[in-house]
Amino acid sequence: MPSLGRLHLITDTRPGYDPLTVVRAALGVAGPELVVQVRVSDDATDRETYDLARRVRELCTPAGATCLVNDRLHVALAVGAAGGHVGADDLPVAAARRVLGPDAVLGATAREPVTATRAVAAGASYLGVGPCHATTTKDGLPPPIGPAGVRAVAGAVPVPVVAIGGVTAATVPALRAAGAYGVAVVGALSTATDPARATAELLRALGC
């Protein structure tokens, strides 16, 4: 399994946002410390997802960064991504592991220790934990768990915990102190005036 970067960028495909421009800017600063998770809206077609994921993977490979695909694991396989990520409403972790194979990166979403330990036992190689703080980039999320919630999960599992949800450079130190291996962001980069500078600030906060 490839080593996992500490800064995870989730593509923002909402109208008016250009995910590839943000990916290029972040890659230029973060290189191998960047994991790009291709996430699309529910109404995006498989072809649209494939086209975006293929271009992201082509950008990631020469930079030594990791490309993952959220939910649509067949697309991950089709574009040669390093793996995928599944949430609570996606394929079960064990099924996702069978689809991707034993060597792929497989992330799973968790917000408390019981779910987290089950996901790891089923084959998750890292966990996305949150939402840590309030966020507007995804609807229907449960209440934030804060650094204390991250600490509870990180103390229960042996795999990297990646904190997600309203993460900014200012909130990273507390999340790292709580045991987060890294952080995942959407709006912190997609809405930044200067995504490259914002990436550098996040990397400094992560200690990279």
TrEMBL record:
GO molecular function: thiamine-phosphate diphosphorylase activity
EC class name: transferase
Entry EC number(s): 2.5.1.3
Reactions this protein catalyses: 4-methyl-5-(2-phosphooxyethyl)-thiazole + 4-amino-2-methyl-5-(diphosphooxymethyl)pyrimidine + H(+) = thiamine phosphate + diphosphate; 2-[(2R,5Z)-2-carboxy-4-methylthiazol-5(2H)-ylidene]ethyl phosphate + 4-amino-2-methyl-5-(diphosphooxymethyl)pyrimidine + 2 H(+) = thiamine phosphate + CO2 + diphosphate; 2-(2-carboxy-4-methylthiazol-5-yl)ethyl phosphate + 4-amino-2-methyl-5-(diphosphooxymethyl)pyrimidine + 2 H(+) = thiamine phosphate + CO2 + diphosphate
Record key words, sorted: Magnesium, Metal-binding, Thiamine biosynthesis, Transferase
Chain positions recorded as 4-amino-2-methyl-5-(diphosphooxymethyl)pyrimidine binding sites: 70, 109, 138
Residue numbers binding 2-[(2R,5Z)-2-carboxy-4-methylthiazol-5(2H)-ylidene]ethyl phosphate: 135-137, 166
Gene3D superfamilies (UniProt xref): Aldolase class I
Residues covered by the Thiamine phosphate synthase/TenI domain: 7-189
Cofactor: how and how many bound: Binds 1 Mg(2+) ion per subunit.
Alphabetical list of HAMAP family matching this protein: TMP_synthase
Protein name: Thiamine-phosphate synthase
Species in which this protein is naturally found: Micromonospora cathayae
